[in-house]
Amino acid sequence: MGVLTSSLRMFTLQSQRSDLTYKIDLISQAKANLTAQNAQLINAGTDLSADSPVLKQLEARKERLHLLEKKLDQQLLQYQTQLSMIDAQMKHCSSDFDSSVKSM
Questions:
Q1: What CATH number labels 3-102?
Q2: Does residue 70 carry a pLDDT above 70?
Q3: Helical H runs in the chain?
Q4: pLDDT value at position 1?
Q5: What is d(CA 92, CA 3) in angstroms, rounded to the nearest whole number?
Q6: Domain spans of the chain?
């Protein structure tokens, strides 16, 4: 690759990396919110009797939060994998850039 091509590729990869990092941050914040909501549900349910319909609703809500957390974990893993692939591409592109500059 030439210097210009390597530079453009690095810029594109850096943009993709920034986008993924932002998405990872959003997922981390969402997971923290889910954890807080789950803790609130647990605290709210401690005063209820075992056969209370409200407790059953709280349990159903906790299950939905758990499923949402699993989906977020899967998405987080996907983004982290993409981020590691971009980092590897950036390293390769950087070495191409260095080689192009040395050959000038």
A1: 1.10.287
A2: yes
A3: 3-45, 53-102
A4: 55
A5: 13
A6: 3-102
